[in-house]
Amino acid sequence: MPTPAPHGIHKRSLLRDDVYESIRDAIVDGTFGPGERLRDPELEKWLGVSRTPIREALLRLERAGLIIAKPGHATIVAPLDPDSTASAQQVVAAMHELAARLAVPLLGRDQLAAMTEANGRFAHALGHDDVELALAADDDFHAVFVGTCGNDMIPAVLDQALPLLRRVERQRFSSHAARHSVTAHAEIIRLAGMGDADGAALATRENWLSLGTETTP
């Protein structure tokens, strides 16, 4: 039989993703704090959508470890848990290590310049205590390896693991301890510029593992 018409599937998919990202970001940035109850009617009113995409988003957030949902009971934002955070950190570090190892042989001047520029913005944001800009610049820095490596599974895995770690990132980037990452980024750029894939990969891994797993709200 002929393939059926999509009937708005793409639009629905985009809506579902938008709802998920909105709730996820509100949890990560602290708008919804650990232990806070998430009520469907309030989320529907806030996002202006029906219950179906809300429930789909909450299921994804539960799989990501960001909420705890008990059927027939409350759905709450998950507390910061050292074990879960450490597990996410290990996965994120391993994925970025692999991305660096694959990407370095493929890097050109433009990619290295993009990393240098992103690290400059990162240092500037930290110097001005701007956590949002620091996070964006750090994402841009690491995105060069991820975007160049040619392995499409890496960003998919990161999309699952990184949100759980992001709450700890926000804490670190609010402290002076994050200044170390500027130097670590510079060393990664130096090794990548030399074509040292193993060195850049290991330095990238250590950069992510140095994040720490503090769980202070």
Provide a descriptive summary of the structure in words.
The relative contact order is 0.14. This protein folds into 2 domains: 9-77, Orthogonal Bundle (Arc Repressor Mutant, subunit A); 82-209, Up-down Bundle (Four Helix Bundle (Hemerythrin (Met), subunit A)), CATH 1.20.120.530. The chain has helices at 9-28, 40-47, 51-63, 82-103, 109-127, 131-148, 153-173, 179-193, 197-209; strands at residues 67-69, 75-77. The chain starts with 8 loop residues before the first helix and ends in an 8-residue tail after the last helix. It has 9 helices and 2 strands; from the N terminus they run H-H-H-E-E-H-H-H-H-H-H. By secondary structure, it is mainly alpha-helical. The chain has a two-stranded antiparallel sheet with strand order 1-2. It is 69% helix and 3% strand. The radius of gyration is 19 Å and the shape is elongated.
Summarize the structure.
By secondary structure, the protein is an all-alpha fold.
The number of helical elements comes to 9
Terminal CA distance: 56 Å
CATH evolutionary superfamily of the largest domain:
GntR ligand-binding domain-like
Which CATH class of the largest domain applies here? Answer: Mainly Alpha
CATH architecture of the largest domain: Up-down Bundle
Lateral arrangement of strands in the main beta sheet: 1-2
Q: Kindly state the mean pLDDT as a whole number?
A: 87
Structural class computed from helices and strand pairing: mainly alpha
